Amino acid sequence: MEVSPTIFIIPTGIGCEIGGFAGDALPTAKLLASASGCLITHPNVMNGGSLSEKNKDIFYVEGYSLDRFVKGEIGLKSVKQQKIGIIFDSSIEHEILMRHLQVADACVATLGLDVDSYVLTEKPLGIVIDSESKGISGGLIENPDALIAAGEILIDKGITAIAIVAKFPDNLDLIKTNSYREGKGVDPIAGVEAVISHLISKFLNVPCAHAPALSPIELNENLDPRAASEEIGYTFLPSVLIGLSESPDLIDLTDKNENLTLHPSQIESIVVPSGALGGEAVLSGIERGLNVISVKNENILNLDKQNLNYPKLIEVDNYLEAAGLILAIREGINPKSIRRPLHNINKLTFKNKLS
Question: Other CB atoms closer than 10 Å to residue 39's CB: what's the count?
Answer without folding.
Answer: 26
